[in-house]
Every structure is written in C-alpha cells, then in structure tokens.
Amino acid sequence: KKKWANFILYNKPFVEQFEETPLVVAVLTYMGYGILTIFGYLRDFLRDWGFEKCHVARERDAQKDFVPLYQDFENFYTRNLYMRIRDNWNRPICSVPGAKMDLVERVSKDYNWTFEHTGMVVREVINMGSYNYLGFAENTGSCAEAATASNSVYGVGVASTRYEMGNLDIHEEMEQLVARFLGVESAMAFGMGFATNSMNIPALAGKGCLILSDELNHASLVLGARLSGSTIRVFKHNNMVSLEKMLKDAIVHGQPRTHRPWKKILILVEGIYSMEGSIVRLPEVIALKKRYKAYLYLDEAHSIGALGPHGGGVVDYFGLDPKDVDIMMGTFTKSFGAAGGYIGGKRELIDYLRSHSHSAIYATSMSPPVAQQIITSMKIIMGEDGTTLGADRLRQLSENTTYFRRKLREMGFIIYGNNDSPVVPMMLYMPAKIGAFGREMLKRNIGTVVVGFPATPIIESRARFCVSAAHTRDMLDTVIQRRYGGKKRVKEGKLFPGGL
Amino acid sequence: MAWVEVPGQEKVLKPLLNTVIILGLIKCANFSPQAPAYHLILEGILILWIVRLLFSKTYKLQERSDLTEKEKEDLIEEWQPEPLVPPVSKDHPSMNYDIVSGPPSHNIVVNGKQCINFASFNFLGLLDNERVKQKALASLKKYGVGTCGPRGFYGTFDVHLELEDRLAKFMRTEEAIIYSYGFATIASAIPAYSKRGDIVFVDEAACFSIQKGLQASRSFIKYFKHNDMEDLERLLKEQEIEDQKNPRKARVTRRFVVVEGLYINTADVCPLPALVKLKYKYKVRIFLEESMSFGVLGEHGRGVTEHFGVNIDDIDLISANMENAVASIGGFCCGRSFVIDHQRLSGQGYCFSASLPPMLAAAAIEALNIMEEDPDIFSVLREKCEQVHKALQGTPGMKVLGESYAPALHLQLESSSGSRETDVRMLRRIVDYCLEKQIALTLARYLDKEERFLPPPSIRVVVTVEQTKEDIDRAASCIREAALSILK
C-alpha cells in the first residue's frame, strides 16, 4: 500500500544511491588515521621539547600567565592532520569564477605552514568547485552591464538598515521579482545567506516550540535553531519513517516532563544537501506536514535555479505547489551569481518578518549592484529578457549533470546522491587520498574541492564536483579522463605525500 | 517467564516476581518438619510476602505504552498549533518603510522628496565618491559580481587577500580577516573563542550583534553598568573569589571583556585606558567592537586605540564593520596572528558562508586609500560633529545624548510620557515634520522584545563631512520648530 502511495506522490523516478563503505576500506581508513594520530603526538612532543622548529603562532609574553586561549587538544587535528594537506583549500583565484579560472600560484617551503605567491598565474584551470550552476558568474553580458549601470547610479554601499534609511527602491523591485519567480505571495531579501537562516529562525520559533531538523543540515540552520531557544530533535537524513515517528511522538506526548502541547512544530530541511548530493523527499515531507499540521522551512540554497524545468528549485522539480511550503528560503550566491538570501511565503509571514527579523532592524541592507545582478539574472532565467538564454542554460545544466554522473559511474567510482543533483560527491575514504587527489588534479589543471573530517564523517572523505551549465561537453570529458588518470595514481598508493 | 498473569504489572516486575515465587516453591519443596524453628519462620514470612505481592495494588511506572492507537489518532486530530506568525497590525511602522529612490548619498530622495541626509552612516561621505565607484567598476569588469563559493572552496580572491593585508597595515596589527556581512562579524568572532563554561563581562549598552554572539557562545555572561569601571571591577573581584574556591576550574576558564569603542546605542566612548589596567590586573582578554569608531576617532582614523594612545597589542581582538565610515559592505577583525588565525577555521560566518563580492572589497580598498592619503578628513569630521552637537543643544523638550565628537547622536525626549508607544509616535511625528521640511532623519530602531536592555526611544542624527554649515543650521532650526510645535 505504501509503495502505491509513493508512486502517486512522485511524478518521476527518485533514484538515490549511498553505497555502504566496503569493510576493507573502512579498516584501512581507520588505520590511516591511527598512524597519523601517532605521528601527530610524536611531532607535538618534538615541538614541545624544541627538537623541531615551531611555526605555530604563540601568545604574547606579557600575557603568558593568562588562561590559555586555546586548549592544546582542540587544535591537535588542525596542527597535525589539516596542516599536511592545507594547500588544497583557500586557493586564491584572480579571475571570474566561471567554467575556467586563473589561480594564483603559491608554493610552500615549509610543508604548508606558510605560503608564498610566486607571482605566476596558473591559467585556464577547469573549475569544478565553485557553485556556479547556471553560469552567471561572468563579467560580460547583460548582467554585468546592468550591474555597471547600477553601480554608477547607486554606488556600492548603503550605510543604513532596511528599517531606517536603507530601504532603496531597487530592493523593493527585487523582492517583488523574487516573489513572482518563486510563485509565492511575497518575499524579503537579506544581505547574507548564512545570516538569513541564523536571524530569521529565531523570529519564527521560540520557547515552547519544537524544531525537527535533518541530520545533515547546514551550520546556519543549526545555529538559527539553537538561537531560537526551541527544543531541537534530529531525524535521520531524508528518512521519512524517522520523521513521522518523531512527529507522532511529539504531538501525542507534548513537551518533555510537563506534557503541555507544543506551540508549533517546525520541520527544517534543505533542497539539495551539498555534502551528500541528495535531494529532499519533498512530496512525502509535505504529505506528513499536512497530516500532522506542522510548518515546513525549506532551505533551497543549492537547489534554487539548479533543479526543475523552470529553475524553480525542488518544488518545481517535483511539480508541487509552492503554497504548500510555509517558508521558502534560498540564497542568491549559487545559481544567480550574486550574494545574499531570501525568504518567501505568505504575505502575513513576510509582513511579520519585516518588523521582527533581526536583519531588517540591525543589519545593513544589500548592496545595489548585487541587487541588480539578482534582478537581471532572475529575469533571464524566467525568460523575461526576451531571449532563450535561461531555458538553454537550465537544459544544459541538466544534460551536463546526467552525462557526468553516468560517465563516472561507468568508470567504477563510488558516487553519492540523487541522479539529478548537480552536486556530485565522489568517495575517497582514506586521509592520504584527500591530499593526493586534490594535488594531482591541480597538476592536471583541474580545480576540485576535497572534504574530510569534520565536515563529513571520519571515514567518508570525498571529492565534490559542482557541475555547471557553463561547462562544455569537452571540459567534462577532460575532467573525467584526467581524473581517471589521477585516480589510478592514487590507487597505486602514494601513502604519505609531502613528507612526514 | 509469563506463566504468572498479574494484571497491570510492568514487564520489569514480572520476572522478579516469578523468580521470588519459584524460589519460594523450591523452599517449600525442601520443607521438612525436622527443620529448626528459625527456618520455619523464614519460610512462613516468604509465603506471606508472595501472597502479598500477588494481591498488592499495581502502579504504572510509565504511561507511554498504554495509549491505544485510537487515542493517539484523536490526540493528533485535536492538536492545533499556533499560527506560524502572529498577525501584525496594518499601521505597524514596519509596514511602511521609508523608500529611498536613488543613492542614499548627501542629497537623498525619501518618499519622493529631495532631502539632506542626516540618517545614513556615511561619515566620510564615501558613498558616492567617484574614485570608489571607478575602482568597484574595474573590479566588476574583471571578476563579475558574485564569488560563488566560501573562502575555502575557490572563493578567496586576490582582492580579499589584498584588503586583509591593507587593513592589517592600516591598523598596525599582524593580521586581519574579512567577513561578508557586518552583523555576522562580531557575532561569529565571539563564539569562536568563548565556549560553554567561559565567562564574558559585557557592557549593558552592547549592541544587538554582540548579544547574539554571546548567545551563540553559551558562556556565562555578566553585565556591568554602562561605562562603569567600578562595577566591572566589583564583578571581577567576585570572580576572583570564586576562582580561589576552585583553582583547577579557574585555570581552564577563559575570561573576556567585550566593549564597544563608540557605543551605537548611547554614542559615548568606552574608558579604554582604565580597561587595559583592569585587563592586566585580573587577567581578562579584551574584545573591542569598533564599528562606529573605525574611520572616525583618532588622528589617522584608527579608532579608539589611537584616540587614547593605547598600544594596539594590548587589545586582543578588534572587530569593526566596513559599512559605516568605509561605505562598503562587510566587516573585519584584526589583531595578532595568534588570535585571528583561529577564526579561519572556527568562525562560522567565515567558513560556512560565501565570501565578500570582489567589487565591494575593491571599494573598501579604495576607501582605505582615501583615508590614508587625506588624514585631515578626520579632523573635519570632528569639527562638524562639534558643530552639530552645539547646534542641537537647547532643543525644547529634547536632550542630546552622546559625546561631542561622536558622529551618530541620539535625540531623546527629556521627559517620557510613560508609555513607549506614545513616545515613539511623538518622535515619529517630529521625523515626519523634518522630512516635510527636507531634512532626512530616522528613528533609532530596536527589537523591543529581544533587546536585553532596551534603550529609550530616540531620533538618530548622523553627521557626515559633506554637510555644510548651512545644512547643519537648517537642520537644527527645523528640529527646534518641530519640537516646539509637537511637544508643546
């Protein structure tokens, strides 16, 4: 009976894969971390006793007798594991973060403690790391021209909050456009995506409310939930059985100890989870939400513009009604090439947020050229600029995603996530492979993102690719072939790159 | 073990009861009349106890397992949540934001009326500076608008590194770190260092972003009276006494003092030299929030440390936003590398958020260039602040709150009517009157229910270098008229 219900809820097959870690790999990974930890202790010992030069910054002499600012143990991981492969992150770029980018070349003579810029630039590196799903990170074209015009008229700063003197006409125009794009009654925009979550969830939930949050929610959602003061319960990732059980328990038993009924229940989910590449089971969540009268907060940071035939995000992808989602939140950083976040929903909700959101009252409003970029790119996606550029890019993105994932699977790599998600995590597992993979790919002129602990579980380190509409078929082929070469070298076992 | 059916007993008690009964039966089986007297008495007691247990009143340990499915369904049907948001009345002031058409510069168009801007924090007049716009434009042509990623994943541009370098050099510290949002700067910096169990001493007038940072840090917060160093010393002494009771815990509890250079809520300055003395006496670290004083105080605009001549290394962390004097967007923290480098991995607003758009960073660099080339701009600003401060004195029914060199003053009612709403409404009428007369002012806004120490309602008056003597005189007379006619 449940299978039929699911069949009716979903209008297309929902295929997700999360292969279990093979046992051999898990054991080897733990061993790898164990060896690294032992060496870490050894190096700390050598550093403390002065046998090795210490590059770590030290406290001032005048403040030596203060309580230490950091516990030694807190930074153990940073000093001994992260430091070895630090060159894979924070790579400076000096061009548009489009499909190809230019990286500033940097070298380290002391095993990643300090970096020097050689003054050279590594040109035309294929960019598989930036969140540029629809290719709007560009410095030419109608978006750039409109932003230029806006800069000449408005300047870059605003120097006041929305509530005081910072509410410009361009903000109002942008918010109306966002509401139309999402298909909701009203929308409000904020200057930072992270802050949109951390400043608005406390305005919506408080003491006596229950927040049900997915296991793998982003740090901003977790911070917002914590700052609200509500009770937080975590359900298993994308697991509707776990969510239903929690909802039932919550309503039947009420608040812990007093058993008073909850004031409201808020479910926090994301559209696409950026570390897993999974898409939320939105039809089921909405069915549950309606049955149990909870409210749904959907964070579409990665999915808006990237999923759906019209770029409307997960709601569009599943063909659902945007009015079913109580609070639609998203960011403009990823698919729109700008910065900031938005919340869309019913008029009462937005009116309430206008007066009670921390951001509207205390934080400076969005910069005008950024707001203009959002307006232009949104019009392009909606097709209102008179060209088919938006539709072309949406189609290109979904073709690229399907092709890339299929090819990688054919080659035997372990890929996580939904078949339609443009975020493609490829499993590496072992700590040494993280560093080796990042470096080998850079040598082959491809920029990738590798992630390890603590962003992911300790044995599930991965490389993450972000497919973009700006990537051509050739670029994707290059990446796949070179990665195959890179992976081969990694498989042939360079266990301790970069010296001990 | 369920062969004894006892009505209503919890599963935990059942096996125990059964064991007792079995033991009893075994004992009975071993019964023989030749047994000594005490043995018989013990048997008797055991049998009586079993009989008592069999017929004793049952009590439930947990009610959980006893709701039927039907009851659960009913509860689910009956439960009604509160509406997602409480209704907001139609004439709530936030329903009608003042709309600014065009740039918020010196001549600003508010609600369709051309006014002189006394409301935006554009202290150095850099919002419509041509050089700044040109540099932003050049950056836009090179990088586009957005960065499409956080700092860790190809979101670090050479412009960011240059801005951090320039800020560190300007403030004469070792290192600086940039955030993409002013509010998030201090709100991410505090929880990166102060964790559960640590102690933070905060001034009562601290701004909202500091309060949010403190809330996120889960530390013990102790408020001391605004600018009252004796109150702070009292709290520190009490803490010292606590420490002596538990020295082991004291050795790992970090202590911090968080103050602002120029307070946004009261427009006065913190007594920094006294604070530094307390720092070394009681071994606390100082976090200084300089959003309003960066680019304002000091001979070269370096803030309150330069104003008082305090060695910058004595302050552990200086945090400021670039949205006031620097007329860009974002914020930064600066200090020694030992302190700042930690935020690169544990500042939430830094690691988990997209980086500052490069054109805004380029605009900030150019603003810094202008500040460095022309340090006279700060003395001009100070002069204008003094002028405005003097001109506003003697406004009937209102008092001026703030230092004479503070660029963002508060005009409060001298005597409150008793209800905050009435006060706010009266002040709003004064603001509307001034808007009619083409002077743009604004009410200072707060979240009434969320602020810990809600400041009294006031009008914010901001001084910028672009205001001329005529503008200032006109504004002062306009406010005086408004106060006379409305406050009677």
Oligomeric status: heterodimer
Number of domains of chain B: 2
The CATH superfamily title of the largest domain in chain B: Type I PLP-dependent aspartate aminotransferase-like (Major domain)
Find the structural class of chain A using helix and strand composition.
alpha/beta
Q: How many strands, what sense, and barrel or not for the largest sheet of chain A?
A: 7 strands, mixed
State the CATH topology of the largest domain in chain B: Aspartate Aminotransferase, domain 2
Overall pLDDT of chain A, averaged?
A: 87
Q: What fraction, in percent, of the residue positions of chain B are helical? A: 40-55%
State the low-pLDDT regions of chain B, or none.
1-10
The largest sheet of chain B has its strands arranged as 4-10-9-8-7-5-6
How can the largest sheet of chain B be summarized?
A: 7 strands, mixed
Contiguous uncertain segments of 5+ residues of chain A = 1-5, 490-500
The global form of chain B is: elongated
**Gyration radius of chain A, in Å:** 24 Å
Q: What's the level 1 CATH class of the largest domain in chain B?
A: Alpha Beta
Helix tally of chain A? 16
Strand order of the largest sheet of chain A: 4-10-9-8-7-5-6
Average pLDDT taken over every residue of chain B = 88
Could you characterize the architecture of this molecule?
The complex is a heterodimer of chains A (500) and B (488). By secondary structure, chain A is an alpha/beta fold. Chain A has 16 helices and 15 strands. In chain A, the strands form four sheets. A seven-stranded mixed β-sheet of chain A has the order 4-10-9-8-7-5-6, with helices on both faces. In chain A, strand 8, helix 10 (314-318) and strand 9 form a beta-alpha-beta unit. Chain A is globular and about 65 Å long. Chain A starts with a helix and ends in a 9-residue tail after the last helix. The relative contact order of chain A is 0.14. Chain B is elongated. In chain B, strands 4-10-9-8-7-5-6 form a seven-stranded mixed β-sheet, sandwiched between helices. Chain B has a four-stranded mixed β-sheet with strand order 1-2-3-13. By secondary structure, chain B is of the alpha/beta class. Chain B has helices spanning 13-29, 37-55, 69-78, 130-143, 158-171, 182-193, 208-217, 229-245, 247-250, 272-282, 304-308, 337-340, 343-346, 348-351, 358-373, 376-392, 420-436, 469-487; strands spanning 100-101, 107-110, 113-117, 175-179, 199-203, 220-224, 255-260, 285-289, 317-321, 331-335, 398-401, 408-413, 439-440, 442-443, 458-462. The chains are: A alpha/beta (500), B alpha/beta (488).
